[in-house]
Amino acid sequence: MSTTPDNHSSAKTTAEEQDAQELLADGVDEEVIESNRRLFAGWQWTLFGGLAVAYSLFHLITLNVLPMETWSYRVVHIAGALILGYGLYTGGRFAADTHQAAPRWQTWVSGLLMLPALYALLQTVLMWRAIEGGAQRIEPHIEAWHYGYPLILATAGAIVMSWCYRQVREKCALPDVVLMVCALASAGYFLVIYNTPLRMSTGTSFAPMGISYAAIAGSLLILEMTRRVTGNALVIISLVFLLYVWGGPYLPGFLGYPGLSIGRFFSQVYTDAGILGPTTAVSSTYIILFIIFAAFLQASKVGDYFVNFAFAAAGRARGGPAKVSIFASGLMGMINGTSAGNVVSTGSLTIPLMKKVGYPSRSAGAIEAAASSGGQIMPPIMGAGAFIMAEITGIPYREIAVAALIPAALYFLSVYCMVDFEAARKGMRGMRKDEIPQFRRLIKHVYLFAPIVILIAALFMGYSVIRAGTLATASAAMVSWLSPNKMGVRAILKALQLAGTMSIQIIVVCACAGLIVGVISLTGVGARFSSLLLGLAGVSQLLALFFAMCISILLGMGMPTTAAYAVAASVVAPGLIGIGIQPLVAHFFVFYFAVMSAITPPVALAAYAASGISGANAMETSTTSFKIGLAAFIVPFMFFYSPAILMEGSGMQILRVAVTATIGVVMLAAAVQAWYFGAVKAWQRLLLLAGAICMIYGGIYTDIAGLAVGVGLLLMQRSLKRGGDSPQTAS
C-alpha cells in the first residue's frame, strides 16, 4: 500500500496547526471561573458534571421531542438550576487552608437542618400518593406542620449557615446539600399540586396553604442563589418590592394600594403571574437553547476565530486594538448573554493591547465596556432581552430582530467614530502587520460563521426560534469537523456541561425578575405608575420620556440586562403605551436604557468589570464609557420622534432617517472627541452638538439645519488645512 495519503494527511494537519499557532487570540472561549465557584475533583466532579449534562439534555429533549406540561416544565427548569447552583457556587468565602475542616458545631447544626428538609421531601411523596389515591386535597395541619414549617425552617437555617460555614473549594458544603434537598422538596410539591384541579385555586382563599409554604421556600432559594451569582443589587431591589406588598397600604398617593395577605400573595406569585411568568417562559425556552448554542460555539473555538477575524480586519487601522474591541464584542455579543461576561471574554485580550498603542487605562476599559454592552442590542440574538420582549409584546421575534438593525448599527458606528477620532486626535498608530493574524489564513476558516448564518436564515425562512436554534446548534458541531477543533463525543458532552453551568446565572436572574414582576402585577403598582406617566405627558411628552429613561436606568443599575429589562418593561413600558406610543417603540425605548445601565454611573457593571482588567479607577472608567456610548442615550428618543428607525414606515422614510441619523451620530462623536476632519475649537464643538441633535431628531427642517452645520464646518476645516492653520484641540 502507498503511504502518500498518510503523508498528505500529516501535511494537512501540520498546516492546520501552523494556522492555529499564528493566531493572536487564544482562550477567548475558555470558561470563566468565578471566585465563589467550586472546583470539584473525583466523584463529585463526575456527579455535578453529569447533572449539568442531564440538565442541558432535558431541555433539548423536552423542547424538540417530548413536550411537557408548561407549568411543570418551568418548575423543573428553575429547580434544576437551583440544585446545580447550590452545588457549584458557595454562599461564603473559601477557607485559605483546604485541609482544615469546618468546626464541629457547624457540622452538627447543618446535619440537624437536613432532618426537616428530608422530612418535607418525604411529605411531598406521601401527598403525591394521597392525591393519586383519590384525595381531593391535603389536610391543612399536615401541610403546615408536616411540610411547610419544616421546609421553611430548613431553608432559612441552611441559608444562614452557608454564610458562616467553612467552605472548601473542592467539596460541596453540607448546608448547600440541605438547600439542594429543599429545592427538590419545594419543586416536588408544585409538581404534585399543579397537576391537579387545585391549580385553579391559586390566588384565592381556597388555595391550599402548602402552595404558599413552597413558594416562600422557593423565593428564599431564588434570592440566595441570585446573591451568589450576581451580587446584592438585584436581591436588595427584590426585597424592596416584597416589602412593598405589606407596606404599600400605608404609603400615600399613587403608591398606596388595598393590600394582600401573605398567603394570598405567595399562593399566586409562584404561577405565571410571577415567577413562572414571561421571564421564566423565555429562560426555559429561548435562552436555555441559545446558551446551549453558545456553549457549542465555544467548544468549537468560534469565539477565538471571531476575535482573530476582527484583528485581521481592523487591527492595522489607527487605534487598531480599540476597533478590534468593537468588532469582536459585537460578534461575541451575538452569542454572549451578558455585558460583563462579554467584557471578561474579549477585554482580557483587547484592553492590554489598547494600552500598548497609547490609550489611557480608563479609555481602554471604557471602550471595551461600551462595545460589550452594545452586544446586547446586536441582532440576531441580542442577549436575552429580545426574547422577553417577544414574549411580553406578542410581536414575533423575527420582527424585533429586524427592527433592531438600524439602532444597533448606529450605536456601533458611534462607538467606532469615538474611537477613531480619539486615535486621530492623539496620533495613535495601528498594529504592525507582524502583530496581527494573516487575513489570508483566517479566510480559510470562514465556514465557522456558518452556524450564525444558518440561524439567521432559518429565522427568516419562517422556522420557529426553537427549531432555528436547534438547527444552529447541530450545525456548530458539524462545522467543527472541518476545523482543527473537531467535536467528538467528549467535546459534545463538555459543551452540554458548559451549557448547564452557564445557564444557572441567567435562569435564577429571570426567576428573581419574575418575583419582582409578580409584585408589580399583583399589587397593581405598574398601572398606577402608568397613570403618573400619563399625567406627565399632559404637560410634556418629552418630560414623560425623560422620566421613563431615568426610571429604566435606575431600575437597571447593578442588575443584569435581562432582569433590568424585565422589570422596566413591567413598570415603564405600559405607561409609555398609555401615552400613545406604539408597543414596539415603547419596549425598545425601555430596552435600550436597561442595557445601557451597564455603563451608566454610578453603578455600571460592565465598566466595573473592564476597570478590573485595565487597572483604572472604576468610577472614571464608567464615566468615560458613558461618554463613549452617548449615542445610545439619544437614539432611543428617535424611536418616538422617528419610528422609521425601527423599520416602521415606507422604504423612503426608513432610508432618509437612517442616512440622517448616521450623519448625526458621526457629528455627535466629533463633538465629544473634539475632532472633525481635524481638531476643533470649543465653539465648533457646540455647533457640532447642536447639528447632531438636529440630524438625530429626524424632522425635515432639522435635518436641513443639521446638514448645513456639518457641511459648513467641513468646508471650514478644509480651508484651514489648505491654509496650514490647523486649530488647536479644545481642552
UniProtKB/TrEMBL annotation:
Keyword annotations from UniProtKB, A to Z:
Cell inner membrane, Cell membrane, Membrane, Transmembrane, Transmembrane helix, Transport
- InterPro entries xref list: DctM (IPR010656), TRAP_DctM-Dct_fused (IPR011853)
Classification via Pfam families: DctM
Organism superkingdom: Bacteria
Q: What's its membrane topology?
A: Multi-pass membrane protein
Stretches assigned to the TRAP C4-dicarboxylate transport system permease DctM subunit domain: 218-646
Gene Ontology molecular function, alphabetical: transmembrane transporter activity
Q: What residues form the membrane-spanning segments?
A: 45-63, 75-96, 108-127, 147-165, 177-194, 206-223, 235-255, 275-297, 401-421, 442-466, 504-525, 532-557, 563-581, 588-608, 628-647, 654-676, 688-715
Please give an example of a GO cellular component term from this record.
Answer: plasma membrane
Cellular localisation? Cell inner membrane
The cross-references to PANTHER family, in alphabetical order and at most eight, read: BLL3936 PROTEIN
The free-text function statement in the UniProt record for this protein reads: Part of the tripartite ATP-independent periplasmic (TRAP) transport system.
**Stated name of the protein:** TRAP transporter, 4TM/12TM fusion protein
